[in-house]
Amino acid sequence: MEETVVQGFGKTVLVTGGARSGKSRHAQALAEAAGGAALVYIATAQAFDGEMTERIARHRAERDERWRTVEVPLALAAAIAEADAPDGVILVDCLTLWASNLMLAEADAETAIAALLDAIGRVAGRLVLVTNEVGMGIVPDNAMARRFRDLAGMLNQRVAAAVETVDLAVSGLTIRMKG
Fold first, then answer.
1. 94 contact partners, CB below 8 Å, separation of at least 6
2. How far apart are the C-alpha atoms of 103 and 100, rounded to whole Å?
3. Distance (Å, rounded) from C-alpha 132 to C-alpha 169?
4. Cα-flanking dihedrals φ and ψ of residue 69, to 5°?
5. Cβ(128)–Cβ(63) below 8 Å
6. Burial degree of 130 (CB within 10 A; 0-12, 13-18, 19+)
7. CA distance 1 to 56
8. Which three-class secondary structure string do you get for 18-40?
9. What DSSP assignment string belongs to the chain?
């Protein structure tokens, strides 16, 4: 597999792309290249089935002992604030799973997103956020899937506006969209 080329980024970066596009690998390479004294991986995934359990284990195996993992399905803004350090790097993977968790918990997504945007604006260290671009496919055939697509699209737009850098991953290649 070809190694991701790491380019500099501002204090905050959003890495977006489709499923299996290379976005997580690129985000991890950015975080590791940033040279932070502490690397914190905030995982939003929940293992509801065996396949997801395997995915989580595979992602963990891709990170070495430099990483501290924090599993946070809902309280993302608080987790970012708690993990933040001036010489640290936080990697959040991923915002779309977080949005799904909010929907399943019937949480107030608007309040949670506002808190996330506030946390992004306050970080002292560096922050890398991963999300899925879900708006390039077909229109979902059911109301819940359309609600999720709309929530994810709105979340991505608001986070992209709040961060300094946005990278798009497609087919294992990345392009700088902002910053």
1. 24, 44, 45, 129, 130, 131, 132
2. 5
3. 10
4. -100, 135
5. no
6. buried
7. 20
8. CCCCCHHHHHHHHHHHCCCCEEE
9. -PPPPP----SEEEEEESTTSSHHHHHHHHHHHTT-SEEEEEE-----SHHHHHHHHHHHHTS-TTEEEEE-SS-HHHHHHHH--TTEEEEEE-HHHHHHHHHHTT--HHHHHHHHHHHHHH-SSEEEEEEE--TTSPPPSSHHHHHHHHHHHHHHHHHHHHSSEEEEEETTEEEEEE-
Question: pTM score, two decimals?
Answer: 0.91
- CA distances to 50, 135, 139, 140, 156 from 130, in Å: 23, 15, 23, 22, 10
Residue in 59, 63, 158, 178 annotated catalytic? 59
Is 26 an active-site residue?
Answer: no
pLDDT per residue as tens digits for the range 125-163: 999 999 999 988 788 889 999 999 999 999 999 999 999
Helices 109-122 and 143-162: angle between axes, nearest 10 degrees: 20
Q: Give the per-residue pLDDT at 7.
A: 60
36 residue type, one letter: G
